[in-house]
Specification:
Layout (H helix, E strand, L loop, with lengths): L1 E2 L7 E6 L9 H10 L12 E6 L15 E8 L6 E5 L15 H11 L6 E8 L11 H19 L10
Amino acid sequence: MTQVSGSVSRTLILACGNASRGDDALGPTLIERLSALPIPMPGLCQAFDAFDDFQLQIEHCLDLQGRESVVFVDAALSGPEPFSFGPVIPEPALSITTHALSPGGLLRVYQEAIGGPLPDCRLLAIRGYVFELGASLSPQAAANLGAALEFLIKWLRRGPDEPRNPG
């Protein structure tokens, strides 16, 4: 985990993906690039924690505790280019498997297991194109990643009272 403060930060950036599957590495690569930036980051209005995992698991609901905002980052098989950024809400019904959870499924687990108010949760879905095992990051996805990272840094620089939506 990349931690930018000495304690649990108000903001968490949680990325998913598999570096062995081409553009599925977009989430972990974003965390890697974010972690390489100078800390403290000039103009950053608030500290954040960031880490990645292959997939969301029920245990990740513990990482949401005490947060004001959470940004889930993942590669998208389809959708707008270069990325989309929008709210995540709890899924109405929970289906726990041994494989993985969606961000909305994780919020549902949080509500049922921990309770209390949810943090403001967003999904940064970066458009990918090549997801085959052994593939590297495609040039198009790399360009989308650059745009998504630039957007996320601007989002993190917003003050706590400023609007958190892109615009």
